Amino acid sequence: MPTAPAFEQITYAVADGVATLTLSRPEKLNAFTDQMAEEVKAALDTIDADDDVRAVVVTGAGRGFCAGSDLSAGADTFSAETDELAHRDMGGTVALRLFRCLKPLIAAVNGPAVGVGATLQLPMDVRLASTAAKFGFVFTRRGIVPESCSSWFLPRVVGIGQALEWCTTGRVFDAQEALRGGLVRSLHEPDDLLPAAYALAREIADNTAPVSVSLTRQLLWQMLDAPHPMDAHRIESQLLAIRGGSSDAAEGVTSFLDKRGPVYPMRVSTGMPDAFGAAQEPPFR
């Protein structure tokens, strides 16, 4: 089991196959910083390398999920330190790392989630929210534009019309509107949010093959912009040929026929096809 680095602005723990990654600057509503970005990416590296981690719950400490970028630098908060053409958005580097993660990611949005706090959820696979949560893609109200690859992710998650309304107005909206708009999967009373997120994580950890989950996550994301279903047919056919003869597939069938819970032998660290590891960007092309 890999040892997680020491963190200052997030916390990280693993229990019974489920990792919890918590944004942890509660006195600042977990406002996002460069250091927090690097710590999240380091935690994701640990997650991908740890075969004991089957699913990840991401949440915030205290009463907020993430209040957006730390604005303590004032008017210079969003000034790029490099030439515009060479600049890489901090949130975008985290979003791309989330996108490449080999484990399923569940956002448990416990409170305000605006700016980067809203966009960083988008590469995650399922989003659950507290009834106390609020959301906002507030960039036009700060004189900037959407970041964290959200111009790619948000229309794919909620549709172009809803994405345009939220991003052009920049308004903050409540959890009920997030549910109606398809941004979150379900709403929960504050004390019920994490139990619901962990229950979903347990569905994955207890019943599925780790390598199959990792490949499936990448397949679904990567095929969103495939120009033709033939692209999906080609890659699915290759993976079915690879996985169909594996010890995991044998266990999946025999456990079903024996009416018992499966014990899948293969691990993500050793069982992923060479072309489908997290180090590839993007994994399939």
Structural notes for this entry:
The chain has 285 residues and is α/β, with parallel strands linked by helices. The protein has 2 domains: 10-204, Alpha-Beta Complex (2-enoyl-CoA Hydratase, Chain A, domain 1), CATH 3.90.226; 208-276, Lyase 2-enoyl-coa Hydratase, Chain  A, domain 2 (Orthogonal Bundle), CATH 1.10.12. The protein has helices at residues 34-49, 90-99, 116-119, 150-158, 160-169, 175-180, 193-207, 210-222, 229-244, 247-257, 268-271; strands at 10-15, 18-23, 55-60, 105-109, 113-114, 126-130, 134-136, 172-174, 186-188. Strands 1-2-3-4-6-9 form a 6-stranded mixed β-sheet, with helices on both faces. A 3-stranded mixed β-sheet has the order 5-7-8. The longest helix has 16 residues, at 34-49. It is globular, with a radius of gyration of 19 Å. The chain starts with 9 loop residues before the first strand and ends in a 14-residue tail after the last helix.
Strand content: 5-15%
Unreliable sequence segments: none
Let me know the CATH homologous superfamily of the largest domain. 2-enoyl-CoA Hydratase, Chain A, domain 1
Supply the CATH class of the largest domain. Answer: Alpha Beta
Number of helices: 11
The CATH topology annotation of the largest domain reads as 2-enoyl-CoA Hydratase, Chain A, domain 1
